[in-house]
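Troubleshooting: if your tokenizer reports a length mismatch, compare against these two reference records.
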Amino acid sequence: MRIALVIRRLDPRRGGAEVWTARLVRSLVRARYSVIVVAEEVWGEVPDRVEFQKVRLSSRTGSGRRLEFARKAEQLLESLRPDVIHDQGDGWYFDLLQPHGGTRRRSIEQNLARLPGPIATAKRALLRYLPRYRAFRSLEHRQYIAPPKEGFYIAVSDLVAADFRDHYGIDRRKIRVVYNGVDLNYFNPLATASARGSVRRRLGISAAATVFLLVAVNFRLKGGYQFLEALHRLIRKGQHVVGIVVGRPPGVRVRRFVHRLGLENHVKFVGAVSDPRPFYAAADVYVHPTFSDACSLVVLEAMAMELPVITTQFNGAAALVDRFRTGIVLPDPRDITRLAAAMRTTCSRPWRDIRREAAAAARPFLSWERNFAAIQQLYDECRARQFRAAC
């Protein structure tokens, strides 16, 4: 079976969608599928038995390039005629559309929600005129309202599936929910247990401290400021706690915030890392008070590493935290009082032990093998539908 994967940039350094798609490419090759990658660029060497079809863009603006990519990808795909077109959210000509970041409308609304009221109101009024958002609306119209090719929609969580229905009126019969998965051999708490002590010693963290971890590239969107404020409140109440933040090095605004709260000795910013597992091993609780996540891969990684999780209802992965009872789901990322209370609850070792056992029991569902098998089943479903249509 010839599978065409459509993604603007296949670069695992960029984020979750790219990491997931790169893993899918490797799995498809191992399963002896014929793979075509339709992209503007691919980072690193293209694996053997993978055909790279480069989409060459001429537009100079971000909004123009976004629409030009979708248009030229359609032209390429019409000439290539693969068996299944699996688009990662960047095009509009597909058999399967899987927007890893969820719907653009939810993302925009949740980004506005974290802004002060007057600023959010002013920005919302501007959205209909800004070229970037006009391009988003044009792309989404072709993806959801008037797609040139009939296909299925893959929701990476029940939260995204509800958005497909509520925001765009997608028929539930065209929606398939497939939660992301992670490599359980890689994210294995037994394999990295020895890193706990060494990381803590290197960062100057005592064995008695309760350590909270946040992994975030977009610090503000993932609730980074709320995380720091809640940590500050726990320290003021005498709790022996430390925060570790993995991601981009802190900017001037974050450093000033840390200084104002007096957290210099209580928060360890380690920057971007190629391997987050030692920091999962060093932590006691993973905290992700996000304003918007379709299905956070880092939350799944934390659960696979058998860490209790605190997140919000605006994270699609929160449904798994609830289902497997591995932590606490908060209703509002802006509510620092509730976040601090949840973090204080997790300072209890017996409480954490129960959630660690629950996370261990959840590991089979979190597996990449389960995720990949579900994608393969959808490929077969697409081919069966095409066969029936041709008869």
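Reference record two:
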Amino acid sequence: MFNVLTIGGATRDIIFVTDKGKIISTPQNLTEQKLLAFEYGAKIKSDQVYFSSGGGACNAAVSLSRLGIKTAALLRIGNDQNGTEIKNNLLKEKVETKFIQEDKKTGTSVSFIVVDKKSGDRVIFNWRGANKKLNTPTISPFAKGRKRGGWIYLTSLSGDWEKSLAKINNFVKKNKIRLAFNPGSTQIKAGRKKLLEILKSTEILLLNRDEAIELALSDKKQKNKNFNDPASLIKIIREWGPKIVIVTQGLSGAWVGDKENIYYARATSKKRIDTTGAGDAFGSGFLGGFILSGENIKESLKYAIINSGNVVGHYGAQDGLLTLAKIKSQLSKIRIENKK
């Protein structure tokens, strides 16, 4: 029996750390306000390279399992060494793997991640591989294996994602399963119109600020709004159906809003060495806190801030994910501000 099924990507991450990049500010572009640039034609060297498991569904599953929540993962890997290492890692982390699909023809997804050593920010180059062929109808056994009132934590989808999204939406409504949704870049680019039905079924929606801006801009009715204000973004997007909307801002902290309140928490002050997986750590930390605290939003925000704040102090998306005991030991240090 398990409480949460994570659905989405599984990747083999190659992390390349370098101090040779230059960060260029482009504030005139609301959805691309900073660029990481390198000399054209140059050979960029690194003294640090790491290999690890990644992908939204993998990262969230490991995170929730470390919090003591029974978790299963629905993802697709290739019949290769990368896929074997991802699956073995999930088994080691006590994640249920019976929903994992193995593709005989297409290899496991690979991400090449360039981390700017000076800021800890990163750029990800991703080949989706087997992720494109994820077969969502296999979620039906989850209705039998889950505990009553279980959750689906849905991350980025590839391939024929619109069809998959519709199937998942029908499934959660039919089986009264609760949905937390962290859409990927493809879904964000599709905009409000393509996501409206799944958003109506979403209880917790997780976005970073750039994603929230892009999503809000896709609604042509929204004019003369302050799209750089997270509270404004939360109010716009909540009107489309999600009960709780989260907007993260990296070093500037995170905002969470429901129908009554908007809360804000500052980011922890630990040095960031790699932001890879920070969003997954935040979203899964929030859901974990939501389940464990009896759906206390302020307490859930604390879980998320602590979990993501620790992840960015490690290279890779999973090494810094915390256990329940370690999160609980830091809860009293986090202050939540009511912004409404």
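Descriptive notes for reference record two:
- Residues 238 and 245 are 6 Å apart (CA to CA).
- Residues 185-200 form the longest helix (16 residues).
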